[in-house]
Amino acid sequence: MKVARQLTFWIVVVSLAVVVACGGKKPPVARPMPPPPPSNPTTSSRPPAPPQPVSEPTIVPPEPVPEDAISSASLDDLNKNSPLKPVFYELDSSELGPESLKTLDENAAVLKRYATWVVTVEGHCDERGTAEYNLALGERRALAARAYLVSLGIAADRMRTVSYGKEFPFEPGNTEAAFSVNRRAHFVITAK
Amino acid sequence: MTKFILTSALAAAVVAWPSAQQPPSQPPPQQPSEIEFTISGEGRAPRLAIPDFIAVSPDAETAAIAKTIGQVLWDDLDFEREFTFIPRDVYSTIPRATSFDDVPFDRWRELNADGLIVGTVRKTGTAIRVEMRLYDVRTRRAAFSRQYDGTAANPRLFAHTISDEIHKSQRALNGVARSKLTFDSDRDGERMSGLMQNRNIKEIYISDYDGENQRRVTVGKTLNIAPRWSPDGRSIAYTSYRRGGANIFISNIFQGTLDEVTKGDKVGENWLPAWSPDGTRVAFSSTRDGNPEIYVANRDGSNVRRITNHPSIDITPTWSPTGTQIAFTSDRSGTPQIYVVGSDGLNVSKRSSDGYCDRPTWSPAPYNEIAYSSRSGPGFDIRVIDLATGQSTALTNGEGTNESPAYSPNGRHIVFTSTRAGKVQVFTMARDGKNVRQVTRTGNNEKPDWSR
Question: What's the pLDDT tens digit per position in A81-92?
């Protein structure tokens, strides 16, 4: 914070100097900021110039993250079109393939950006497994996804898991297309 | 014992549903004092004739009740395949009896009937009285006679009671006509409230063994699944998500009360309860120690003991008839297989060798076998392992996908689910895979159990 304030101060000083040097006729042109001068600018032997009478810079409160569509949405709307994408599994498996890891990397970025979100990781299975064993397999899938997110730095206590086995299929029907989307870890945002 | 079951079963029929009241007691049946004997089929199954019961009271309700009792009795007796029957279409050629005194025995004898069941129904105030006799057609003597008083609300219960008593008397068999089924169903199309509105909830239902009198017994607005009858037939243990995660609940369906077997923050997920044969304990799978293991607790949730200890999945417990062993599903070998462990947690052994096996259900005595779901191609079939020989036999053969077997109390039948008729429906079959009957027809109906 202190460094940031010093930085702001020096930026103001340098900007003013540039304006003075250009005769003040041209409108200021936006351009990349020069790097801030070193903290000890008195590299020359000259004594420092007396401080110029500059007006005190107004202290601007830190700009809030602008309300974006995501952070302003209700939980219901969020979950309908969730920024947290489901990850999918192979038959009888809870292993995370390359696609799933990539999805989870993206989900981790979202969870870091919205650091107050609490989510439930649901494990789901397709009807090619039995109803009973699928309850445990779904849990294993949810835990696999959660463990990877924890390894990326997401706090474990933000992610509870639940398994629904094959009780809540996302796609009805008994095609491989339906099965493959029903084998998933599904993210539900429960608090924000 | 029979008297107790009869009284409570008849009384249950008058209970307004769902009711928190104790069922009022009914007068016990009065038994004629004549000596009973067994009707013989002379080397083959006895051939019975069951004409409609005789309505002694002249009103239409009594006539309807009399017809129902005769027809349901036929179905109940047919279910155990201990008798054969004179076809109904020839009954119209026989003069109808109006009482026990004008039974045309000679005509039934011409049709080669060994036994003839004659019954009467009369109104007695608000109740009805049913009298029945099973005659030996050759000697014209009553081999078995009973008289029942009860409510007219559920005439089928008279037939179920008569059937069970005839099987007991004539065949030394514990019939299942008064047993009940339970299963979970999404038939009401109700949706989960809150964040997941596009999901159908499931609730617990019960029905008679033949699928009649289907009734819902939970109001959870959530997933209530995998119900199991307590051995006394008065409670149902099941898996419920009403607390968010999965937990074990017990509904005492005649008291209207609910017990939580697993509760608190530290118990993990809890699935698939199974009653010990004496009804005092419940086995279930829980993740409370990190991964799914089998546990046993008292039915009030106290005295939790861990039975299995393995980092893989252990789930779906079922008790041996004596309560000394528990079978369960584990994928410790790489795929789900059936294992047996002592109820003290010792002596784990693998009992199945198919590719993928689940939902073991231990048969009642005298059969020593475990029925289970086995993957066969894209779906599942019901198979049975003979525990003495290790032999496995298929009971279904790819008629849809077939799952979740459970035995009838006498071990002669299996209830299971199948997609052979479209959605997932409950069916029953004989333990040899024959005599398949569809029990449910609305919605998806799954994970059935059969009362003791």
Answer: 899 999 999 999
